[in-house]
Queue: 2 jobs
Job 1
Amino acid sequence: MVIVNGTEEQHVAGQSITAFLTARDAPIDNVVVELNGEIIHRPQFDDTQLNENDKVELISFVGGGR
C-alpha cells in the first residue's frame, strides 16, 4: 500500500513515478511529486520506484488569474 494525497492506493508499489502518473492520466509536465517528504525532480521520475508504505503528495499547477 502507498499513501497518495492521504488516500491508500493498492497495487502501485513497484511502479516508477512516470508509470504511476501515466496510469492516473496526471499531467506530468505540471505536477510536483513529493515522496516521503522529498521533492522528486522530473528527470528522476523514470528511475524512482514507489515502495510499500511510501507517502506521496501530488501537487498540480493550474493556470489562471487575470
Job 2
Amino acid sequence: MRRRVRWIICLAALLALFAAACAPDRTIEKPALPETVKTEKQPPTITLNIDGSTYIPDVTRSLHFDYMKGIILRQALESSGIVQFSEDRKSILSVGDVSLDSTLEWGVRLNDKDLPPSAWDNPLQAGDVIFVYVKTVGSYATIPQQASLLLSINGGSSKPGLRRIYVNKYEDNTTVRDLLKRSGVVKFNVNNTLIVSVNGYVPEQSEKWTLKVNRKQLIDGGMDMRLKPQDGVELMLVNK
C-alpha cells in the first residue's frame, strides 16, 4: 500500500514538471517609452524686402539671410547680390536691373523706421526686417503709381548686358524723346532725331534700335509722342 501511494506521488510530481515545461512563455514585456522628439533650433535670420510696386514687379522679392553678430545694414544689402551702391556709397544706384531718374531714389527702412544713408553702417539685430522702396528725392513717401514712367532698355541676345529699367517721375507733356534723354544713357545725333548709342554701344550695320510704347511699335516721328502716367517705353536692339 505504501509503495502504491509513493508511486502515485512520484507520478503527480512528474506530471507537474511536464506541465510547467510545456506552458507558454508569459514574460510581460515593458511598454516602449515614447521617443523624444528632436527639434533643431533654427538659426536667427534677417529679412530683406524689396518693393517695386505693381509698376516694376520684376524687382519685388523677399530674401532671408542667416544672422551673424556684428553684421551691418549695408553688408546685408550688398549680400543680396542685386543692390548696387553708387561710387560714394551714399545712395543705391540700382536694384536688379532697375535704375531711377534724378528725381527719384531708393529709400531704406529698418523695422518700419526710415533710415538715412548715414545710418546704413549701424549693426543689425536678429529678426530685423529691411525694406527697400522707390521714393521721391528728399521725401520718405513712396511715389504714386500714377505718377511714374518706365523706360526699358533691352540689348537682345547679342548685348544682354545693356538690359536696364529706368523708373521716372511723370511730368506733364513728357515725350518719348524726353524720356530717352532723361535716362542719361541714350545719346542722339545733333538734331536729336536719331539714336547714336545706348550706354556707349553703337549698333553694328546689321542692327538697329526699335521703340515701343506699351508694347506697340512706334512709327517714324513717334518720338514726339506725349506720354501719359504709367506708360512704358521699350528701346530694343534688333537685327535688321
